[in-house]
Design goal:
Length: 251
């Protein structure tokens, strides 16, 4: 059975859900979904970087599946704007332009503001947020232990699960895709060795929400996303990764 290569770290994978596991339904139980999920997770884990070429023959060998399956998975990834398929050139992991970077972060800020507005109106908000406090604790632990993959997964999961707390499945699905695209943008622009203690900012957002401080929560989220955007280096080149290294076969 093919699996994404396990990365070094001490936080168990059960504590760090893969990005593809955060949404139910869709392609999840199909052969196409298996290929889609493995590639999607490698993108969010930053093991497949922007600009990486995904050749059908290579993917068929990695996933031990047909070209039809690979093409369907790549088409689904293109639909979600994770992959770009260029005529006569093939499929590539999406590489953001400067405008796309600005647009995605602008949409993230607007969408996260909507989520916070919905959440602050719920009388049972502290109960809804309880699981997120635990997630942030695991995020901090993964960061402190140097478990990069688990840290990235938990950081991504925070925003998707915050959207899920709002109770709108369509909103959650949109946030799921936007978080993946944001991850690609950060992977493309981040300077080597850059570290972000996002768990501190995540906890501040939860604290403001729990206190019923709508303005404080909005300001904390705006600062969190703006800081993330400003942290990126315009000189980032998004060096492409070899999919044989990012997607390894366990035989």
């Amino acid at each position: 059975m093919l699996q994404i290569r396990r990365q070094e770290g001490t936080t168990s994978e059960s504590q760090a859900p893969s990005a593809s596991s955060l949404l139910e339904g869709g392609l999840a139980d199909s052969e196409v979904g298996r290929v889609y999920s493995q590639i999607f997770d490698a993108v969010v884990d930053r093991r497949l970087l922007p600009g990486t070429k995904l050749t059908e023959a290579t993917l068929c060998t990695i996933f031990e599946c047909s070209r039809a399956t690979v093409r369907a998975a790549l088409a689904a990834l293109e639909h979600d704007k994770i992959v770009v398929i260029e005529p006569n050139r093939g499929a590539f992991i999406w590489k953001p332009t400067a405008k796309q970077t600005r647009d995605v972060f602008e949409l993230r800020r607007d969408l996260e503001a909507l989520i916070l507005k919905k959440l602050i109106s719920y009388p049972d908000l502290p109960e809804r947020l309880a699981g997120l406090y635990e997630l942030v604790e695991r995020e901090q632990l993964a960061f402190e232990q140097g478990d990069r993959i688990s840290w990235l997964r938990l950081s991504n999961a925070f925003h998707v699960m915050l959207a899920r707390c709002a109770g709108n499945d369509e909103l959650t699905e949109l946030m799921h895709t936007l978080c993946a695209r944001t991850t690609l943008i950060i992977a493309y622009h981040d300077t080597p060795g850059e570290q972000a203690c996002s768990f501190y900012e995540h906890k501040e957002i939860l604290d403001k929400l729990s206190q019923g401080d709508a303005d404080g929560a909005h300001l904390a989220m705006h600062h969190h996303l703006s800081d993330c955007e400003h942290r990126m280096s315009e000189a980032g080149d998004g060096s492409a990764a070899d999919p044989w290294l990012a997607l390894s076969v366990k035989r």
